[in-house]
Amino acid sequence: MARTTDGEETPVPQRLLAAATRLFAERGYDRTSVQEIVEAAGVTKGALYHYFGSKEDLLQEVYARVLRVQQERLDAFADADEPVEKRLRDAAADVVVTTIDNLDDAAIFFRSMHHLSPEKHKEVRAERRRYHERFRALVEEGQRTGVFSSATPADLVVDYHFGSVHHLSTWYRPEGSLSKREVADQLADLLMRALRP
After folding, report:
1. Are the beta carbons of 65 and 101 closer than 8 angstroms?
2. Distance between CA 18 and CA 48 in Å, rounded?
3. N or C terminus of the chain with fewer C-beta within 10 Å?
4. Model-level pTM?
């Protein structure tokens, strides 16, 4: 069985992902070699191929790990014993915060998604669809019960919010005038105002 820490405290898969994320963000996916990734992570190519079948697998995992966290958090908000407006607002703010916490990952993915094979692209789209559908279900629940306006279709409401989220990496800067929490609150409040009956 392969050692997961390779003599270091940080497990090898996390070291590889951290190195790949940094290099993909700095140089771009297509201009980063496998050799540069393993050197930055301090491991061998054999270690990389033990955990990830290819550089493409690393790219997919960069985004998938963030999406897994966001899905887990969304499921917790959606399943909470709270009014639908609180559950939706909490989820809407959280996706902003978790995206800002992982800005490099989001930027890399949207800039490099076209490098994925059709099969991997389809897998990622299915994972994203699952997230969007769960989020949309909260909007639909509120519309169905009269808490939210039904004037705008739920799909368009969701696209509106996630359009803002997906563009965070193009303008948000930690040293800017707004904290991640302030951005999250303002975008969540915009969404809630759009749904006001």
Report:
1. no
2. 12
3. N
4. 0.86
